[in-house]
Amino acid sequence: MVSRILITLVSLALLLPGSALAVNHAKFIKGPINEPQDVTRQCLKCHKDEATDFMKTAHWRWSLEQKVDGKTVDRGKKNALNNYCTSVAGNEQFCAKCHAGYGMTDANTYDFSNAENIDCLACHDSTNSYTKALNKAGYPPEDTNLLLIAQNVAKPNRDNCGICHFFGGGGDAVKHGDLDSSMSYPEKEIDVHMDVEGNDFQCTDCHKTESHLIAGNSLGVSPGGKSHFDCN
Length: 232
Description:
The chain has eight helices and four strands, in the order ααααββααααββ.
C-alpha cells in the first residue's frame, strides 16, 4: 500500500510545471552530436511548444514592440544604440555570444523562424561549462562536450543568466553596475535574497517566467518601464 502511494506521488510530481527539467535527460539525449543543432533537434522531439513560445520572446528576436509617444515602434537590442557596444549592426558575430541561438551573422536577414537554431543550452546548462566562442555567430567552441551538457540540463540558474547579464558591455559589471559576477554565489552582504547560505534565490524566483516570457526589461531597451515584476 505504501509503495503504491509513493508511486502515485512521484507520478503526480512529474506532472507539475517545470518538472520536465527535473528529469534525468541522459536517457533522452543520445549521441553522436556533430553540431549544436543536433542537440536542439533532440530537444524539439518533446519541446516543440516551448520552442514556439521561445521564438516569440525578446531573448530570441532581439526586438520588442513598444508604445513611445503614442506610436508603436520596434525597439529591442537589434535596433538600439548604447555607449558600450554601439549597436548590433555590423557586430552580429560578436554580439551573438549573448544570443540564445546559433548562426547569427546579420540580424536583419537571420531566420528567426528556424527552431533548430535555438540554443537551449545557453539557459539550461547545469554543468557550468557551456560558453559561446567570440566572433563565432553564437556557436560554442568546437571542443565543447555538447552531449554531456545536453544530458544535464536544468532550470536556469544565476550563472546561466549571469554569463550575459553580468558581463554585458564587454566586461564584469561594465554595462549594468548592479549586476556582476559576485552575484553568482553571493554572501548576505552582497545580496540578501541570493545569499547561498540563506534564501539562495535564483534570478527566476523574482523574474518569473511564463511561456518563456521573463518578467522585467532593461530600461535601455524599454523606456516605457513595462513588464513590471515583484518578489512578494
